[in-house]
Specification:
Ca(2+) binds at residues 153, 194, 199, 232. InterPro entries: PLipase_A1, PLipase_A1_sf. Belongs to the phospholipase A1 family. It is found in: Cell outer membrane. This protein has 318 residues and is an alpha+beta fold. It has two domains: 2-48; 52-317, Phospholipase A1 (Outer membrane phospholipase (ompla), Chain C, Beta Barrel), CATH 2.40.230. Helix content is 16%, strand content 48%. The chain is built from four helices and 13 strands. It has a twelve-stranded antiparallel barrel with strand order 2-3-4-5-6-7-8-9-10-11-12-13.
Length: 318
């Protein structure tokens, strides 16, 4: 009878009890050693990995699901710091079309410098124009620092300031397989805050459209210059351009983007630029950043100066 009492079913019950005991011991060990915290942090990191590449709906809060409220500062353009940027044709004597608007002699600039960009935006008004649009305020700043130029006491060569007021309309339509997510307009001012002969500035009215398709994003812009022609850069649109197309591809935590600008003119005024960016993860929110630029307008002071630059640094926000 004893053999009947200790049947395989009883052995199965014992095995279950052993597993319960073993699981309990492992849980206690993980709790005491902090392993569970590490596992939880891994889950957080995985969530962050998948959410690192935000859609246009998330970036611009185009629906109720992603609306975060007004006057909350969020990122706009990429935030990065190029530790080293090399130029094939450094502009040592910047000059506008006005021949009297130039320096008395060239500046002894280094071909190597650093560059950084800061950019942010905030939603000012929500659901204006009969509930169809949002109003945003944005600010971007680029700085070019001759930090390796000891002879000139490491000055900032150029700083560009770019505030914007943006009117954005959430949309939902399809063009060539891409989803149209937004249409809008913006008033943009850009200047370097300097006096003659190095003063450069312009105002423009810009129109934009945003599309996405899976890991792809496409943003196209067309702008018209505002103001007179008797300024310090009267033909800036023939160099920097009158339109822009930005194509972005997210590959996991890596991002590739191309920004092309063009004057939308032919002949001698057929000018523009192409900028390529590649970011790759280093640790958490810290990424490496590679940038290649070719054409006119790498900075405002260089709006009519053609060059090719190569930059390598780090990125905080893509």
């Amino acid at each position: 009878m004893a053999n009947v009492y200790f049947c395989p079913k009883s052995q199965k019950l014992k095995a279950i009890n052993y597993r319960v005991i073993l699981t309990t011991l492992i849980s206690i060990f993980c709790y005491l050693t902090g392993t569970e915290k590490v596992r939880a942090q891994d889950n957080v990191d995985q969530d962050w990995i998948f959410k690192n590449s935000k859609t246009l709906s998330e970036l611009w809060e185009l629906d109720e699901e992603h609306h975060r409220g007004t006057f909350l500062i969020t990122s706009y353009k990429p935030i990065y710091f190029s530790l080293g940027k090399f130029s094939t044709n450094t502009n040592k004597n910047p000059q506008s079309e006005q021949r009297d608007n130039s320096l008395p002699q060239p500046i002894d600039l280094n071909v190597f410098e650093t560059k950084f960009q800061l950019s942010m935006k905030t939603k000012v008004f929500y659901k204006v124009l009969w509930g169809k649009a949002d109003v945003w305020a944005a600010y971007s700043q680029k700085a070019y620092w001759q930090i390796y130029n000891k002879e000139l006491s490491r000055p900032f060569r150029e700083t560009n300031y770019e505030p914007e007021i943006i009117l954005n309309f959430p949309m939902n339509f399809t063009v060539l397989g891409f989803k149209g997510r937004m249409l809008g307009a913006a008033f943009v001012h850009e200047s370097n805050g300097r006096s003659d002969p190095l003063s450069r500035s312009w105002n423009r009215l810009s129109f934009h459209a945003g599309f996405d398709k899976g890991p792809w994003q496409l943003i196209v812009k067309n702008w018209f210059r505002l103001g007179g022609s008797n300024d310090d850069n009267p033909e800036i649109s023939d160099y920097i351009g009158r339109g822009e197309a930005q194509l972005i591809y997210d590959w996991g935590r890596q991002r590739l983007s191309a920004i092309g600008r063009h004057s939308l003119r032919l002949g001698e005024k057929n000018r523009g630029s192409l900028q390529l960016n590649y970011t790759f993860p280093i640790i958490k929110n810290f990424s490496g950043h590679v940038q290649v630029f070719n054409g006119y307008g790498e900075s405002l002071i260089d709006y009519n100066h053609r060059q090719t630059t190569f930059g390598l640094g780090v990125s905080l926000i893509n």
